[in-house]
Write a structure and sequence with these properties.
Elements (H helix, E strand, L loop, with lengths): L2 H30 L2 E3 L2 E3 L5 H5 L6 H10 L2 H5 L4 E6 L1 H5 L5 H5 L5 H9 L2 E2 L5 H10 L4 E4 L5 E7 L2 E5 L5 E11 L2 E6 L6
Parallel strand pairs: 3-9
Antiparallel strand pairs: 1-2, 3-4, 5-6, 6-7, 7-8, 8-9
Helix pairs in contact: 3-7
Protein name: Uncaracterized surface protein containing fasciclin (FAS1) repeats
Pfam families: Fasciclin (PF02469)
Keywords: Signal
Length: about 190
């Protein structure tokens, strides 16, 4: 028996299978219109939590969501619009703020901050831009936390302001999820 022919044939089959799977994966990414966030593809067939845990730019947000006990909620049916602050956004907060709100005794405060970044419906950047234009330069929406966010635009950029006047720029818009949409922002909003 000639093992080299078997090995060569088996290798050819494996390589063909591997290339077919790679091509299939690339087609799937293209078909799903993935967006890269934090070095990872965000799949519209996955929910907000399933995608967020893969973004290296959102490890602080994911830790906060876990500490607040919101994983199950944000994995739910939705739809949700989440304005997702990056790690760099959390780093802009005063020293010790993140560590403090992650303590179990501050869970209510943390939950309030996180739910202030969520609207209980799916809103695209196109919707926001249209509503801003219709609203004479601004649009407000009520968050899950209960207070409002104000949206404005400058050129093609969309900004979100909290009730205290903090302003976040949407840096990556329309990251579609199976249960809503994420818009990445560069500043943590405070209720």
């Amino acid at each position: 028996m000639n093992y080299s022919k078997i090995t060569t044939s088996a290798l050819a089959v494996l390589m063909t299978f591997g290339l077919a799977n790679q091509a299939s994966a690339q087609k799937m990414m293209t078909k799903q219109k993935t967006v890269m966030v934090g070095g990872a593809a965000m799949y519209p067939t996955k929910n907000i939590i399933e995608n967020a845990v893969n973004s290296k730019d959102h490890t602080t947000l994911v830790a906060a969501v876990k500490a607040a006990g919101l994983v199950e909620t944000l994995s739910g049916k939705g739809p949700f619009t989440v304005f997702a602050p990056t790690n760099a956004a959390f780093e802009k907060l005063p020293a010790g703020t993140v560590e403090s709100v992650l303590q179990p005794e501050n869970k209510a405060t943390l939950t309030s901050i996180l739910t202030y970044h969520v609207i209980a419906r799916k809103i695209s950047s196109k919707d926001l831009a249209a509503w801003i234009a219709k609203g004479k330069g601004k649009y407000t929406a009520k968050t899950v936390q209960g207070e409002k966010l104000t949206f404005t635009a400058s050129g093609k950029n969309i900004y979100v302001s909290d009730m205290k006047g903090n302003k976040a720029k949407v840096t990556i818009a329309d990251v579609n999820q199976s249960n809503g949409v994420i818009h990445v922002i560069d500043t943590v909003l405070m209720p």
